[in-house]
Amino acid sequence: MNQEILNQEWIGLAPAWIKEAREGANSTRTGLLDKPMLEACGNVEGLRVVDCGCGEGRFCRLLADRGAAYVVGLDLCVPMIEAAMEMRSDRDEYRVADVQDLSFLANGTFDLAISYLNQCDLPDVDANNREVFRVLKPGGRFIIANLHPMRSAVGTWHRTADEEKLHVILDRYFDETERRWTVMGVELTNFHRSLSTYVRSFLNAGFRIADIVEPTVTPEQLKVYPQLDDELRVPNFIVYALGKPRNDR
Ligand SMILES: C[S@@+](CC[C@H](N)C(=O)[O-])C[C@H]1O[C@@H](n2cnc3c(N)ncnc32)[C@H](O)[C@@H]1O
After folding, report:
1. How far is 62 from 70, CA to CA, in rounded Å?
2. Nearest CA owner, ligand 1 atom 7
3. H-helix or E-strand containing 72?
């Protein structure tokens, strides 16, 4: 599927996505993924950050609020970037760009790169990893949240007649092809890849893997977000913390 058709899907989803983000209503972000993502980012004070597939800019604003010196959010979807621009401060800016080609960014100019649920959207994840590696300074880090490969393989819960969740069946794991989902009523294409394919892509780009986290919910988070109970049962998401070696140019 070509990039223009993929982008049209995101343009269709953008109004509902932006509304949900602005209302803080996406519990998998606020109740599950933000914590391990922010922990993996560590102290961002004074850092130059690039966010690949930033959407309406929520995580860029979080990092700017935490003291990042400069955050540039990149997204191919114009309505997302327009929404992000509405809320920008003097430390975050936004640009319409395909994160598989960062040729407009100079080599070795960022301390930290983010990909928050974007790599599953990319036909060419190797290009994104290579480009992020290039624009990071030696010692720079790339923090990625993605759909867990075990869930991106199949996706849906099997339910009883009264909607109780029974189980997710893992299937077609080694079939690294497109998957179609319905998100907020809009058809969306993702690209499934196995765990070893992702790991090989990171290593081939030159990264070292510092950590891999499979987020689940704590009892405290469950009290606030009871709808996240399935996070105790299956791994929906994964966070990778990568580093560019210090001796690399
Ligand atoms: C799942 S959303 C995540 C948005 C944001 N990171 C967040 O956590 O709210 C994925 C985003 O990636 C963007 N995207 C998809 N393919 C892209 C590409 N090739 N280059 C740049 N952005 C892309 C979409 O437009 C969408 O905004």
Report:
1. 12
2. 55
3. strand 70-75
Ligand 1 close to Cβ of residue 98 (< 6 A): yes
Residue ranges of domains in the chain, CATH in brackets: 3-151+194-242 (3.40.50.150)
Q: Is 61 in the pocket of ligand 1 (CB under 6 A)?
A: no
- pLDDT tens, 179-210? 999 989 999 999 999 999 999 999 999 999 99
| Residue pLDDT, tens place only, 122-173 | 999 999 999 999 999 999 999 999 999 999 998 778 999 998 889 988 999 9
Answer whether 0.85 is exceeded by the pTM: yes
Tokens describing residue 117? 């649920």
- Distance, CA of 25 to chain centre: 17
What is d(CA 100, CA 125) in angstroms, rounded to the nearest whole number?
7
Q: Is there an atom of ligand 1 within 6 Å of 9 CB?
A: no
CB 117 less than 6 A from any atom of ligand 1? yes
